[in-house]
Design brief:
Strand content: under 5%
Radius of gyration: 20 Å
Largest sheet: none
Number of helices: 19
């Protein structure tokens, strides 16, 4: 597996695109923890912090597919970099004015979320044009998921480190400035500048006309709820067990667990239908949220948070393949952006919902939310399993026969070579 990852990273532009995208997504990945810490430092409540994070998430949910569709229509540089700059400027306004003026605070986070560039979907659209050999794109998806967990491990530590060295305000400014630099690195690269989407059928629903994609999005809404709830419940737990440093390690533990799980998942070539494998991975993810209710000491809680993230990266890597199998032609960036959007909306709902739950019943009740949300995600996949599997494996009929799906030349059954998004 290491040689496979190394071969991909040695491919021209691959490392630059991966690192640039991860750095560019840092503001989006750390927004919940950065907003919670900033609002608390300014004297705000958990409910206000959760509400601001929810507004950011909802705005991000609206902006990602819209900007993703614009990327499919007009290319990446015209959309990604302006979005990154506008989003960073809006967060700078919040950092300078604070949350006391509620109207200005809500407006700032709404603009920041709406303008966040769809770098994640953009990277997955670029992989087929950068990686030419059969099977490499699937490996790149697994590597992408692993690299994201590195970001989710390092990101919270970067935020809490900035807080320890300077302040919550500086942390908010730094992560957004760094994000602009990451987006700039991606959009000035040759693959990003020359990328063009596949011809697409004009349809107002775009990628959402795929029933299989809708089923997947419904499940990952609840996975997002689970992660968003942990952000707030973890902060409440840390207040009585060591403060912000412990909070940073708990959130980073989720990323560390995902990193380990992603590495193990990418260590082998998977056969069989990915839609069926996804059900198993989400079931294991749901089960691993339950031990958080034990609430041991800080070291034990960090270990349990790592366990809760163990199957996150594998389930995401598998979901990337499923998205690509179900996305209609010419909507690849938009389809991946919808996955990001749904995940973000779920995280925002989890953050907003867990705030009142924690204030009412404490951290333990807050940690009950991820378990319930994980069970709901599994239930959605089980209820829509026939749609997912039938759509993903069919090779007859107008849709499958047109080769709109399975375009990336991966080792999954039914994939073809020659896909260039």
């Amino acid at each position: 597996m290491a040689s496979g990852y190394g071969e991909i990273l040695r491919t021209r532009y691959a490392a630059r695109l991966l690192v640039g995208t991860l750095v560019g997504r840092l503001p989006n990945a750390t927004a919940p923890i950065a907003l919670v810490l900033f609002v608390r430092a300014e004297g705000g409540s958990y409910s206000l912090a959760g509400a601001l994070a929810a507004v950011y998430g909802v705005a991000n949910a609206v902006g990602q597919p819209l900007l993703g569709r614009l990327v499919d229509l007009y290319g990446q540089p015209r959309v990604q970099l302006p979005g990154a700059v506008v989003s960073a400027l809006a967060m700078a306004v919040l950092a300078c004015t604070g949350p006391d003026s509620l109207g200005a605070a809500y407006a700032a986070v709404a603009v920041a979320g709406l303008a966040t560039p769809p770098l994640e979907g953009g990277l997955r659209a670029l992989w087929p044009g950068v990686l030419r050999e059969d099977g490499q794109v699937h490996t790149a998806y697994a590597m992408d998921a692993v690299a994201q967990e590195v970001m989710f491990t390092v990101g919270p530590l970067l935020v809490t480190g900035c807080v320890a060295l300077w302040s919550e305000q500086v942390a908010l400014l730094v992560v957004n400035a760094v994000g602009v630099l990451g987006a700039l690195s991606v959009v000035v690269s040759e693959p990003s500048r020359r990328w063009r989407s596949q011809a697409r059928e004009a349809h107002w629903l775009g990628a959402l006309r795929s029933p299989g994609l809708l089923a997947l999005l419904g499940a990952y809404l609840f996975v997002g709820v689970a992660l968003g709830a942990i952000n707030v419940a973890g902060a409440s737990y840390a207040d009585g067990h060591g403060g912000d440093v412990v909070y940073g390690w708990i959130i980073a533990g989720i990323g560390l667990g995902g990193l380990v799980g992603g590495v193990l998942y990418g260590a082998r070539q998977w056969t069989g239908v990915p839609e069926r494998r996804l059900v198993v991975l989400v079931a294991l993810l749901a089960v691993c949220y339950l031990p958080l209710l034990l609430m041991p000491g800080a070291v034990g809680m960090t270990a349990l948070s790592a366990l809760s993230g163990l199957f996150l990266a594998p389930s995401l890597a598998c979901a990337f393949v499923v998205v690509d199998r179900h996305a209609p032609a010419g909507t690849v960036t938009e389809a991946f952006s919808w996955l990001v959007t749904t995940f973000t909306v779920g995280a925002s709902l989890g953050t907003a919902g867990a705030g009142p739950v924690v204030e009412w019943g404490g951290a333990r009740w807050g940690f009950a939310v991820p378990g319930v949300a994980g069970a709901a995600a599994l239930l959605v996949l089980l209820m829509t399993r026939r749609i997912l599997v039938a759509r993903g494996t069919a090779r007859g009929g107008a849709v499958a026969g047109s080769w709109e799906n399975d375009r990336n030349g991966t080792v999954e059954p039914g994939f073809s070579t020659g896909h260039r998004a």
